[in-house]
Amino acid sequence: MSTWAMAVSSSPPGGNRLFRGLSADERRSQRHEQLIEAGLRAFGSRGFHEVGVRDICAEAHLTERYFYESFENREALFLAVYERGVGRIRDAIVAALEKAQPEDMARAGLRAFLCLLRDEPLWPRIILIDVLTVGPTVGSQSFLATQGFADMVGNIVGALYPDRDLDPQLVASGLVGSTVSLVMRWAQGGFVEPLDKVLDHCALFYEALMIGHVAQPLAPGSVTRSAGS
Fold first, then answer.
1. Is residue 5 part of a domain?
2. Mean pLDDT across the stretch 43-59?
């Protein structure tokens, strides 16, 4: 029996034959990842509105057939790239919060956020700028992602002020909104201002919560409970 015949006869059932050691499902997953990485490079450097499907395919070294195998259109790819970036930011913030003391949580989380955007410069345009201009579906997901971060902050606000007639989510939404606005300005300016200066200005709003207040112990997991949702 020839080598090719042996390979075919030993292939997985259901037509999921191996090619270069990969099954059809594995090759499809690999192409999907290639397209996301290509989308990150293209959208992050040139912007959503300057990039077409052909540009993405050229960047990924794939044909348009394979693009539409994974994504319905450019917006769907952009959303996948955006969600990847949000996941990276969330993981970085949660890791920083888990290591920080309660009084240092605001600065720890903010520093993790700022460092990621400065050190991985393809993300800011996608996460902070173009996401607002792509369309209603992407805009809705952006709102949900922002709300997820507000939920994280709201847990801290609620733990600090358990006996106050205060809506933690309203406070958290204001805090997150101020952070996003400041960071957008920093990113659009090319990250020229020192990170510590930007951190001081972002943290000012969060640290105002601590004025005249002795923090209550935070319940285990209260900060990160919403992060994985």
1. no
2. 96
